[in-house]
User: Fold this.
Amino acid sequence: MGWLIWGGAGVTLLGLAGLVGCIVAVSQARRAGLDETALRAKLQRVIVWNFAALLLSALGLMMVVIGIALG
Assistant:
């Protein structure tokens, strides 16, 4: 079950990288000085990526836990 643990760790790291990317995107959007509607549109797009990255990270952690439980 080692492959499940390491695979889950990799998936978790991909999700974490996505979350960091969302933080960077929001930070850049706030520094760009956009008006409220443009900022709101940008944030709505980032929220979708944020949820996807969070889901990916959670699935990776589930894979790790299942790998540990079965191993």
Q: What stands out?
A: The chain has a mean pLDDT of 95.
